[in-house]
């Protein structure tokens, strides 16, 4: 399986977002949270809604979309309890976005097989609750190829061995 360092690179939200930035993989603006004041400043700068993402959680536990300062404060409190020793990251939440899942199997960072699924609902519905369709119906060939390239890059950067989902 994947090494503990690889798992940490995937599950630690700060490390993962920083890795994407360094590789030039586009993502919404984000910030590692150090306190409520910096979170409020970030959300004021990018505008609501914002996504609060704790590290090392299963099934999106304590991951929430904040629509106002009051939401943000409550969600940060919850996230900090769920992921006490690991960073919480806040990012701009893109409304009306299309959400895509990639399920793959890799060996030593090289993808052996991959399936790309498209969420029927707009982003914001957890993949465990969403309706997914494979092959994707509303993604053009160029975008689908870009998704596959990004999946290969991430698998390689994290040196993934075994099944994984993005």
UniProtKB/TrEMBL annotation:
Substrates-to-products reaction catalysed: hydrogencarbonate + NH4(+) + 2 ATP = carbamoyl phosphate + 2 ADP + phosphate + 2 H(+)
Gene Ontology terms, MF aspect: aspartate carbamoyltransferase activity; ATP binding; carbamoyl-phosphate synthase (ammonia) activity; carbamoyl-phosphate synthase (glutamine-hydrolyzing) activity; dihydroorotase activity; metal ion binding
EC code(s) of this entry: 6.3.4.16
Gene Ontology CC terms: cytosol
Domain ATP-grasp: 17-162
Any one GO biological process: 'de novo' pyrimidine nucleobase biosynthetic process
Keywords: ATP-binding, Ligase, Nucleotide-binding
InterPro entries: ATP-grasp (IPR011761), ATP_grasp_subdomain_1 (IPR013815), CPAse_ATP-bd (IPR005479)
Top-tier EC class: ligase
UniProt xrefs under Pfam families: CPSase_L_D2
Protein name per its UniProtKB record: carbamoyl-phosphate synthase (ammonia)
Gene: CAD
């Amino acid at each position: 399986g994947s090494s503990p360092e690889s798992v940490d690179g995937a599950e630690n939200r700060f490390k993962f977002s920083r890795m994407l930035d360094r590789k030039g993989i586009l993502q919404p603006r984000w910030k590692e949270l150090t306190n409520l004041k910096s979170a409020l400043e970030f959300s004021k700068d990018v505008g609501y809604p914002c996504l609060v993402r704790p590290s090392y959680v299963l099934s999106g536990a304590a991951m929430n979309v904040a629509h106002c300062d009051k939401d943000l404060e409550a969600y940060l409190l919850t996230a900090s309890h769920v992921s006490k020793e690991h960073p919480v990251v806040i990012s701009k939440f893109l409304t009306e976005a299309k959400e895509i899942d990639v399920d793959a199997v890799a060996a030593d960072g090289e993808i052996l097989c991959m399936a790309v699924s498209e969420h029927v609902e707009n982003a914001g519905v957890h993949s465990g609750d969403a309706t997914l369709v494979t092959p994707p119906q509303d993604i053009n060939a160029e975008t689908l190829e870009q998704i596959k390239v990004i999946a290969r890059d991430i698998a390689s950067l994290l040196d993934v061995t075994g099944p994984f989902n993005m």
